[in-house]
Amino acid sequence: MSVHDALAAGEFSVVRLPEEIDLANSSEVQAGLLAAIAEGGSQLVVDARDVRFMDSSGLNALVRARERTLAMHGSFHLVAASPRIQRLLEISGLDGHLRRVDTVEEAVACVTSASELHRCGGQRPPGPQRSPT
């Protein structure tokens, strides 16, 4: 299983998650997410479209990755259109903390926006300003 499957690199990385994230593989998932941040920059897009099951250890891995991106003045986007994942975020109270979008394209557009206001909602954390490209 390749957790760190960066589809894009440079200012951001896209990491595709496995179908199941639980205690057995959550440390590997977390390590893959943190490696993507270290190698690809502080803007992280996490593609959870294939995720069918996630327990609290999986949520913890996502929260730790989000904390790392924010500490680096970056952003974290979770691609999860599945009602199951949306419900998990609601139940856990993380729906207001993990920026969720429906498609990878939407997340990438948000990450690559030169605007200080994310297209997908919310303000970028303070830090180095981006110049329009």
Strand order of the largest sheet: 1-3-5-6
CATH superfamily: STAS domain
Helix proportion: 25-40%
- Summed over residues and divided by their number, the pLDDT gives a mean of 83
Order of helices and strands: EEHEEHEHEH
Secondary structure class reads: alpha/beta
**Rg (CA only):** 14 Å
Strand content: 15-25%
- With helices defined by DSSP (H or I, 4 residues minimum), what is the helix count? 4
CATH topology label: Transcription Regulator spoIIAA
Which shape, going by the Cα principal axes? Answer: globular
The poorly predicted ranges are: 1-6, 122-133
Quaternary state, please? Answer: single chain
Q: Briefly, what CATH class?
A: Alpha Beta
Instruction: Kindly report how far apart the N and C termini lie.
Output: 36 Å
Number of domains: 1
Total number of beta strands:
6
Q: Summarize the biggest pleated sheet.
A: 4 strands, parallel
In CATH terms, what is the architecture?
Answer: 2-Layer Sandwich
What can you see in these coordinates?
The protein is of the alpha/beta class. The protein has a single domain (12-112), classed as STAS domain (Transcription Regulator spoIIAA). The protein is built from four helices and six strands. It has helices at 26-40, 56-71, 83-92, 104-112; strands spanning 12-16, 20-21, 43-47, 53-54, 75-79, 99-101. Helix 3 links the parallel strand 5 and strand 6. Helix 1 (26-40) runs parallel beside helix 2 (56-71). The longest helix has 16 residues, at 56-71. It is globular. The relative contact order is 0.16.
